[in-house]
User: Fold this.
Amino acid sequence: MYDCIIVGAGPAGSTVAYHLAKQGHSVLMLEKAPLARYKPCSGAVSPAITQWFDVDFTSVVDCVLRHVRYTWKLEDEVAAELTTPDPVWIVRRDVFDPFLAAQAQQWGAIVQDQNAVTGIEFKGDRWWVATSQGVFEGRYVVAADGADGPMSGWLGFKEAKRRIAAHVEVTCDRPLAADAALSFEFGLMKNGCMWSFPRQGGYGIGAAAFIGNAPKDFRPYFEQYIPAFGATYVPGQEKFHSLKRWDGHQPLHTQQAIAVGEAAAIVDPLTAEGIRHGIFSGFHGAAAIHRAIAGEPDALAAYTQTLHDWGNNMQWAQRIAGVFYRVPGVGYRVGLKRPSATERLGQLLTGEIGYGDIANRVIKRMTTGFLLGRK
Ligand SMILES: Cc1cc2nc3c(=O)[nH]c(=O)nc-3n(C[C@H](O)[C@H](O)[C@H](O)COP(=O)(O)OP(=O)(O)OC[C@H]3O[C@@H](n4cnc5c(N)ncnc54)[C@H](O)[C@@H]3O)c2cc1C
Assistant:
């Protein structure tokens, strides 16, 4: 019997595997896809994640970006710079995710890819985890199977609403410019935004609605946006993936089990940032299981509480998103055009400040801007 079976080898699952294995626990991580799987994701991640690992990430950082660019309907450009000491990393998920899994393996975690979990059952004192290649026994299980995985439903957690996001990989021959920028476009798509994050040899271009309904067809948006980056949209090029954004507190533990990462619906409702939050939850999830194995009766409940404390911050992000994406033109004008907006973005990404520190001011500014605009 393993101390812990982790379902899903994304950043959240590998973080749990890394920390539990490092503390001497027997760990099995099961992944349905080949390890270097493609995940539709733009791969922007804050170097703040280094606080949760004793690992050098240099080899998996594709590029480091400091510049930010906003547009409204492809015009009215605002160029800004992140002022935090640590700018943003861009990683390729088919490189970054296997790297994290390998860190866990180095501490003795067993990783089996191409082995989908098909069912789980709690019997006696343990979980029985059925897979395409047999049944495994684990004292604890971790749902780390992302936005579309079945684990959170099987464990009886409330199903968070899923939203579809679309992603296009654009390749280009030009070398990455010194002022290459994280670009955000707010006027083209109703209820959401589009973004383009440069990387060596191309761009990761995404689109998502953050309130209301997602567009039925993303194609017209990509057709307009992709040419801004020197490429042409090829029909059918976009890949789709669900986003499980934070949407209220819910228990994230049950009998000898927890949910981490997007399986726990931890994506930022304002920005769709999920990698850092997945790693954060994986770090605390591993600590909780370690303490539970040591006999601490409320360790898993404390994990839920830790994620709720973090979720208080997401509640503010959700409120800002609710106002911003309803009147994005106002948000663009009175918010993003201010130099302090990008300064705050940098601080939010590193965790230096939380949404609670700025929400009231931001919402007030947008509400006033909206009312004045109507006069
Ligand atoms: C278009 C788009 C762009 C994004 N851009 C960014 C960005 O720039 N920065 C950022 O921080 N976040 C971004 N995100 C969010 C980010 O990609 C996710 O939040 C993050 O991948 C979640 O990590 P995770 O480990 O929880 O789950 P995942 O990375 O989804 O990993 C879950 C794993 O579980 C496996 N699995 C599923 N079911 C089973 C099963 N039955 N058995 C075994 N394995 C299973 C899957 O194959 C998968 O490998 C983006 C999301 C989208 C959709």
In short: The first helix runs from residue 11 to 22. The CA atoms of residues 74 and 185 lie 7 Å apart. The radius of gyration is 21 Å. The chain has three domains: 2-60+94-161+244-313, 163-243, 318-374.
